[in-house]
Request: fold
Amino acid sequence: MKAWDVIKLSTRMFKARPSRTILTVLGMSVGIGAILFLVSLGYGLQKTLLEKITTADSLLTLDIAEGKSGVVNLDHSVVDEVRAMPGVTETSPSFKIASQGLINDISADLSVNAVEPTFLRLGGYKMSQGKSISDDDPSGIIINSAVAQVFGKQIGSVIGQEVSFTFFVPENTDNPEAQEKFRKVDSEIKYKIVGVIEGEEDAVFVHAKTLEYLKIEKFSTLKVRCADSGAMKAVRDKIIEKGLLVSSLSDTVEQANQVFSVIQLVLMLFGIVALIVSAIGMFNTMTIALLERTEEIGIMKSIGASNTAVSLMFVTEATVMGFLGGLGGVAIGYVGGEMFNISINLIASRFGGESVDLFYSPPSFVLGIIIFAAVVGFMTGVVPARRASSIDPLDALRYK
Reply:
């Protein structure tokens, strides 16, 4: 029997038993659609979260801080040494200083971060409103959204407001046991809020150039961008050898990916339950088809059809139904995800939230799930195919 003949005999169930075949394919589609819907939700949540907290630069950036022992000071000389390390492409130091900010006669205690414009980019900070600080406008500052609430203002209305600071600068002392003292320094310039980022801390980002007169010699944080992920490990090891603390956002992202992998696996297991039910229904369909076509199998064998050809006929039929179920499942999962996403975004917009895309399906996963559906179909046809190939032609011709 030729391959084309096997295919024609395997696909004629759509003409002979269209309702039963379509319902069987639909059952498989529901199972595959459930897997795609749930796993795409896991991928979408992962993608949305990581897009909120990461950028391409931040994934290649190391955060350097002083060790708890304080033996090594994170000063200009250390920054120069790190900058000269192989594999380091960019460095951006910053220091924190306590202050009291004043807006329209309203004052509040704020933590001022003196940074360079590159610091925000390397840290993966994203503007929710306004623009970032720049060398062209060093008097511009960025505030966390929590700062606007401290001053009793809306985030949109706070941009453009002038801010003055009183800084509390720590005084150096040679006695490590002496209580730290501070001197008050009023800001020499008037700052203007140019942007807002999301954050719960009462923190402000100021261009470090405007605070050079404070003569701060030690930095609190140093961001180091590496050439690639391979260079990060070598740079990290060298910095740790100096007695400094090293962390990176990529570590957090890796942990988040591990958590989301578990979530996706759990969601997939729920979908597989629906797929198992669908596979049982397909197996039942193939078993009934075997009983209905027993006499036909006897005739085929009597005129020369081999056991292999009979087996292929049933296996091909089951595989085709599984493949079509996979295609239908992708369509059901995609449409269901879009409808669910639209509903969630409508609710979010009504309560003032942002619209997000909660579903994401990597092309490789979509292709894999279609192939998986075909494999499941193939497996449900193996047992009926074996039974069909082992039928004796005489017994089959006498079967009623």
The chain has two domains: 3-54+255-398, 94-216. The longest strand covers residues 88-103. The first helix runs from residue 3 to 11. The CA atoms of residues 65 and 245 lie 5 Å apart.
